[in-house]
Amino acid sequence: MECVVQGIIETQHVEALEVLLHGLSGVPKERVRVHELCLKSGPNLGVVPSEVRLLCDLAQPTPSWTIRHVGGAMRGAGAEQISVLVRTIVESKASKNVLHYFYTLGYKLDHELLKIGFAFRFHRGAQIIVTVTSTNKMPRLHATDEAVPVTPGIQLVEITAPAAADNYNDVVSAVSAFCEYLAPLLHLSKPGHSTGIVATAGAAAASLMSSGGGKTL
Amino acid sequence: MDPAAATLGAAPAAGAPPPGAAAGEQQAAPRVERLSAGVQQQLNLEGMRARAVGLYKAISRILEDFDVIARTNPSASPKWQDVLGQFSMVSMELFNIVEDIKNVSKVFVVYPRNVNAENATILPVMLSSKLLPEMEVEETTKREQLLSGITNLPVPTQIEKLKVRIDMIGSACETAEKVIAECRKSYGLGTRQGTNLGPTLDKAQAAKIQEQEGLLRAAVNYGEGLRVPGDQRQPQSLPSHLIEVLPLGDGAQNFGDSSGSYPKNTSTFAPNNVNNQGNQASGGQLLGRPAPSPGTTGTPNFENVSTPPMPYANSPRSGTNMMNTPSPQQHLTPQQQRQKLMQASQQQQLHAQQLRPSAAGMLAQSALPQLQDLQGQTQQKLQVPGQQQMQYNQALSQQFHNRQMQPGRMQPGMAQSQLNQGTQLRSHLGQFTGAANSAMFSAAQASSNSQMMANIPGSQSLMPQMQVSSEIILCIYSNRIISAYDFQVITVKWIKIKMKMLGVMDLRHHIRLSTVLVALLAYLVENWSSILEICVRIAEASPLSRINLEASPLSRINLDTDPITIQIKRTKYIGIYRNPKCGDLESVPDEKCPLILNRHWSILLCAKNDRLKFVLLNSVLFSAAVFGMGATNSSMMGMQQQQQGVYGNMQAGAQNMQQGMVGLQNQTQNPNFTQQRQQNQQ
């Protein structure tokens, strides 16, 4: 399971956000360059199509592949009150022929996208991963070199935290607490809920950039 | 005064510890005095004490920080923001404590506790409630200023006048504040409280951003706007991380309908060109196969064959005697026959090529592609129910033919071939694993063929009518191999050895099959020398053609010295010769049969619907599925049926296998076993 929130930030403020995250997390940022292929199962695998995402990490010298299956989100009254989305997730590393394997199984490519940005992984009450990426689409199939951003002026910020069924409450609170720190720059919400940008993000970004990270909590 | 109170330095703060001390003093006195109930309600003495101690610690901490900074780095200044924050907290806490004390300060009085030379002089000053002189003077002057004009009036009037003054001053302050606020607004300084309205987005900008946000979120979460239309889905060039993953030809595979056929013909056996050829040969691409003239195939290799198979009227005579010559009873079209011959010739060519350089070495190798061919053909046949034509290759038997099928000449060659076969096949023994007898046969069936056959020749476009050669798939399933020295149970191993045999009508074919079987068994023996018993039974299950080939358990054959022969019983439909030593069925030994086993070993050959299975029971389960017997109306494989379905054989065979397993556990020849098998299989 994982807890996830998403938000958007204007591209001009991404640097300030990076400064803020660096200050909050204390870890260096990691480059993110992921080629995400979303495969949908064919009819031979069942009536209901299932979706599996293959992530190819291109930031490493040798691309590493990960299989990721996003499950259903937690539902119910309790889930409504939680400000983060808790959903089941299955992730696994795979060898490089995983794409061929899935094609052989009957999966078909639904869409693909390229995510370029950075990420911070740290522990703050729970293991939290903050990813700030520019989502790019490819005009031609698999043409990662020709990727253009879907929305040039806006980047996506995603905060995920792995959780288990028994401790997801703690993880949720940790993520919520951390999200408050990012309030000056961006609004965070469950995926699918539109938030808009923070009006004063510019001022906050300016202060972040000018004081060189002196902005504290 | 308590020294702790003195260090705090705040006069009001002195009130905090002394009450505690006072209370403690009171309690320490012999006459225990307690605070009155009312005071206790208002003042939580212990809590007050704790707060005072906490406050004391906080202040001392601040002082410590200052000291550290002063000592370590005199030029550095502390983080004033933090210090101020802490100080504000401390002062707030102090204020709270004092407030609480003030509520009950009336009941307490401060008195000096420890008077010594230090504080003796200052104590009176601290204890006095009289204002300091200068403070006193100051107060008097202020009072005079205030009450200058109204001191002579009565007190209530004075009070009223003072109130009026206060109100005036208050109103003046309010107006002043308003003016200041307006000025702040006009000058954009913001309110004093700090609620910055900040820059607001105008509607258009907000809408645009919202739209972009929607796009982005939809793209990331649901893939909206990222789907490339189908016509653009051909990748012209793959990025580096996909180049090795996706063969370019498969780039479009995922979009189109996957026929389910595996494009690669991989082989679990040692891949060599022979295998590939063999795969292709059996891959059902018979139509596309080059058809070398039969005469150019390994005819010279077969010169030593005693008698070439009889050509039949309706079959094109192949240059080699190994060609599958359909019987008159066969209803093969010339095309089919040609194709059969073509395939057979292909096989012969392969084997001829193999046989020339190093017959021994090649034999084993050729066994492998044949096995693969068999597998492929098995699958093909299985997947196309109702295939009409059978394939019947006898390539392996060719090898043995080269080894002089005659008894005298055969044996050394056989031994050699067996040995070589053993060496070659040994490496592949472990490649197959099977679960159970039933699993074997279910695996042999179309759906689960892949379990047994690790490599499935991809093409399934084999059309039944085009099949030329028939094949035998020998599946050796060992579930228990008991060593001679200890009861070492070896886990189940599947060995599939494909034999290609060209179906012929006559006994020679039986001989070939038996030769192959013998070779295989000998190989098994040779490799598993510790095998106590290998019981091989071959029973043919077709109602129309049945092979009873039984021999006693084969054990510890010394390949160098012991001749291995198989006597196959000829039934009324097909020529099957049976080892008379088996003793369960009347046997008519065929003097032509050159294969003689020195041991009894029974080969359960289950053939139904053109399929033969060799079952090696008791230690090794030996099963051969023979396809494409249709070329011959009999053949000792019992594969003469063209019209019979493919699936039924397997099931029957499965039953047979299981029964055979049961029946032969004791290694004895069950006289009625074959009969039972026949019945069951029917």
TrEMBL record, chain A:
Gene Ontology CC entries for this record: core mediator complex; mediator complex
- Please verify whether the record's keywords include Hydrolase: no
A GO term for molecular function: transcription coregulator activity
What's one GO BP annotation on this UniProt entry? regulation of transcription by RNA polymerase II
Compartments, as annotated in UniProt:
Nucleus
Q: Which InterPro entries match?
A: Mediator_Med18
Q: Which UniProt keywords apply?
A: Nucleus, Transcription, Transcription regulation
Enumerate the PANTHER family for this protein. MEDIATOR OF RNA POLYMERASE II TRANSCRIPTION SUBUNIT 18 (PTHR13321:SF2), MEDIATOR OF RNA POLYMERASE II TRANSCRIPTION, SUBUNIT 18 (PTHR13321)
What the record says about family reads: Belongs to the Mediator complex subunit 18 family.
UniProt protein name: Mediator of RNA polymerase II transcription subunit 18
User: What is the organism lineage in this UniProt record?
Assistant: Eukaryota, Viridiplantae, Streptophyta, Embryophyta, Tracheophyta
From TrEMBL, chain B:
Q: Note down the stretches annotated as region Disordered.
A: 1-29, 249-351
| InterPro entries attached to this UniProt entry | MED8_plant
This protein's GO CC annotations: mediator complex
Q: Where is the composition biased (Polar residues)?
A: 255-283, 294-307, 315-325
User: Locations of Low complexity compositional bias?
Assistant: 1-14, 326-351
**Where is coiled-coil annotated?**
none
Q: Which PANTHER family match?
A: MEDIATOR OF RNA POLYMERASE II TRANSCRIPTION SUBUNIT 8
- Specify the protein name: Mediator of RNA polymerase II transcription subunit 8
